[in-house]
Structures are given as structure tokens and as C-alpha cells.
């Protein structure tokens, strides 16, 4: 196993343990999502917030939850159509193995490339801290690209 994968697994386990120790519903929902979905493969150096957010994006895609995906958007405005387009483009693929490449440093904003194994497509997204100091995404229309 590569050192980056070991670090990612350790970070995910630490995050899971920390969230398990909390007792509010949000953390229990996260723990349930974590155990009900395939593990997210990670490269790069995510922050705790960027990793949790990208996991939620992949889970919402896999579950076909357009409202849940739209709720992660950090900008004002209706992103319902964009969320539905993401579900259509990646919903099925998100049920298989997904790798997230975390680029740059992730203290307040981080670019991420999602690699879906099924159709060998990629999608870039930006995760960042929103106006309410919680992590979310900038949900633009999806632009799937074939991996080469």
C-alpha cells in the first residue's frame, strides 16, 4: 500500500472514530453513511472538512439524492437542475469504486478530481468553506471527461 493511501485510511479511521464519539444526529447520519457505502479511495492531502464533504458528494450521487447533493452547494441560487444532472451523469458510477485526487492545500478551499471506475470518467469540483463556516461544494453543471 502506498504511503498516501495509508495516510488516507488513517485519516478516515480517525475521522470515523471522532464522529462515532459524538452523539448528535448529524454525526450519527455521517457514521451510517460511512458504513453503508463503498470506501472512497483518496490521493493527495485532504483536510478533515474537504474529505468529509467529498465523501458526502459521492454518497449522495450513489444514493440518487439530488436534494442532498444540492444542499452541499455553498452559493446562493437554485442548483436543483445541476444536482439532477450530476446524478444522471455519475449516480450509477458512484456505486462502484471512486478515487478522489485532492489537489493543493485544503485549509479553506480545495480542488478535487473524482475518478469513476465504471465508465472511466473524471469530474473536477471545488470544495470550500461557505458563508456559514461549514464545508460544501460549488455545484456547477457536470462536465464529464473520459480518462485517457
Write a structural description.
It is a single chain. This protein has 148 residues and is an alpha+beta fold. It is 43% helix and 22% strand. The protein is built from five helices and six strands; from the N terminus they run ααβαααβββββ. Strands 1, 2, 3, 4, 5 and 6 form a six-stranded mixed β-sheet that branches. β3 (109-116) and β4 (121-129) form a beta hairpin. The two termini are 24 Å apart.
Write the element-wise H/E pattern from the N-terminal end onward. Answer: HHEHHHEEEEE
**Largest sheet features:** 6 strands, mixed
Global mean pLDDT: 83
Helix content: 40-55%
Radius of gyration: 14 Å
Beta-strand content bin: 15-25%
The N- to C-terminal Cα distance equals: 24 Å
Supply the number of helical segments: 5
Quantity of strands, as a count: 6
Poorly predicted segments: 17-23
Strand-helix topology:
Elements: H1 3-21, H2 25-36, E1 41-44, H3 48-63, H4 66-70, H5 80-90, E2 98-102, E3 109-116, E4 121-129, E5 135-138, E6 145-146
Parallel strand pairs: 1-2
Antiparallel strand pairs: 2-3, 3-4, 4-5, 4-6
Features:
43% helix, single chain, 6 strands, 6-stranded mixed beta sheet, alpha+beta, 148 residues
What is shown here, in short?
This protein has 148 residues and is of the alpha+beta class. It contains 5 helices and 6 strands; from the N terminus they run H-H-E-H-H-H-E-E-E-E-E. Helix content is 43%, strand content 22%.
Amino acid at each position: 500500500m502506498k504511503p498516501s493511501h495509508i495516510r488516507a485510511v488513517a485519516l478516515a479511521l480517525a475521522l470515523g472514530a471522532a464522529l462515532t464519539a459524538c452523539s448528535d444526529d448529524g454525526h450519527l447520519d455521517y457514521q451510517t453513511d460511512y458504513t453503508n457505502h463503498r470506501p472512497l479511495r483518496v490521493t493527495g492531502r485532504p483536510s478533515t472538512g474537504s474529505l468529509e464533504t467529498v465523501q458526502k458528494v459521492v454518497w449522495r450521487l450513489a444514493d440518487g439524492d439530488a436534494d442532498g447533493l444540492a444542499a452541499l452547494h455553498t452559493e446562493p441560487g437554485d442548483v436543483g437542475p445541476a444536482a439532477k444532472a450530476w446524478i444522471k451523469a455519475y449516480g450509477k458510477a458512484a456505486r462502484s469504486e471512486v478515487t478522489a485526487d485532492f489537489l493543493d492545500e485544503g485549509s479553506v478551499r480545495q480542488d478535487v478530481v473524482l475518478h469513476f471506475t465504471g465508465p472511466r470518467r473524471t469530474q473536477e469540483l471545488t470544495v470550500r468553506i461557505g458563508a456559514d463556516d461549514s464545508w460544501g461544494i460549488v455545484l456547477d453543471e457536470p462536465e464529464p471527461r473520459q480518462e485517457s
